[in-house]
Amino acid sequence: NAGVTQTPKFQVLKTGQSMTLQCAQDMNHNSMYWYRQDPGMGLRLIYYSASEGTTDKGEVPNGYNVSRLNKREFSLRLESAAPSQTSVYFCASSVVLKASGNTIYFGEGSWLTVV
Amino acid sequence: SQELEQSPQSLIVQEGKNLTINCTSSKTLYGLYWYKQKYGEGLIFLMMLQKGGEEKSHEKITAKLDEKKQQSSLHITASQPSHAGIYLCGADKTTGNQFYFGTGTSLTVIP
Predict the structure, then answer these.
(1) Mean pLDDT throughout B25-33?
(2) Residue B37 needs a FRET pair 20 to 30 A away by CA distance; which of A72, B9, B87, B109 works?
(3) In this predicted model, what pLDDT tens digit does every residue of A5-46 receive, in sequence order?
(4) Percent of chain B scored above 70 by pLDDT?
(5) CA B20 to chain centre
(6) Is the minimum CB–CB distance between A86 and chain B shorter than 8 Å?
(7) For chain B, what is the total number of helices (H) and then of strands (E)?
(8) Is pLDDT of B95 > 60?
(9) Cα–Cα distance measured from residue A50 to residue A94, given in angstroms and rounded to the nearest whole number
(10) Which of A106, A111, A112, A113 is the best substitution to test chain B (most B C-beta atoms within 10 A)?
(11) Which residues in chain B have their CB less than 8 angstroms from residue A101's CB?
(12) What letter would DSSP give residue A85?
């Protein structure tokens, strides 16, 4: 059971380049998320998708676009990378369990450096 | 603005010492999660608390949620180098499918 899989794990980009972070989950979860983690800031939500076909902005969406390709996959695109986007990116998915609320599962993270 | 405040921001302890990390919210928490991130790796789910006064333990780690459901503490007994990493609390938002996270606590355990 792979859970949440993110690729690539490491990437170095030049300012202005574009790239897409891929995320897939095999748990049949409806909701998926993209977060970025910066020192002292904790995790901040970039975009989320409550269900297939829907996406919504989170706390820090500027400079990013997302696609919920199907129920399994949720990609994050940087159209023109900037040094401020150097961060660790986490994809996550969740299911709502009636008795115990939301349970969220994270990928291993993607370390992105923009030079 | 951060909805969850974690303290301390960083912690350095000698191996074998006990320690506590706190997570505080100004709002009632409806689901409080503790995660650990080892340096260079992803997040690992530790525990989830839902009920006021609830306490859960896993190996040497105990998490509690206060009766008012606005503060949680994570306590590590007899710390070991394997406990080192960043501890992160997260909470359910009451509406929709969103979560909030604290800023994290960086723990270093000196052998």
Answers:
(1) 83
(2) A72
(3) 999 999 999 999 999 999 999 989 888 889 998 765 667 889
(4) 86
(5) 9
(6) no
(7) 0, 11
(8) no
(9) 9
(10) A106
(11) 30-31, 48, 50, 92
(12) G
Burial class of residue A104, CB neighbours in 10 A (0-12, 13-18, 19+): buried
Q: Is A8 on the interface with B (CB under 8 A)?
A: no
pLDDT of residue A41: 65
Asked if pLDDT for residue B97 goes beyond 80, the answer is no
Q: Is the pLDDT of residue A98 over 60?
A: no
A63's tokens: 């400079």
**Least CB–CB distance from A109: residue in B35, B42, B99:** B42
In this complex, which of B2, B33, B41 lies closest to A42 when CB atoms are compared? B2
Q: For residue A43, which residues of chain B lie inside 8 Å, CB to CB?
A: 88, 90, 101
Looking at residue B39, its pLDDT comes to 62
d(Cα B88, Cα B109) in Å, to the nearest integer?
A: 17
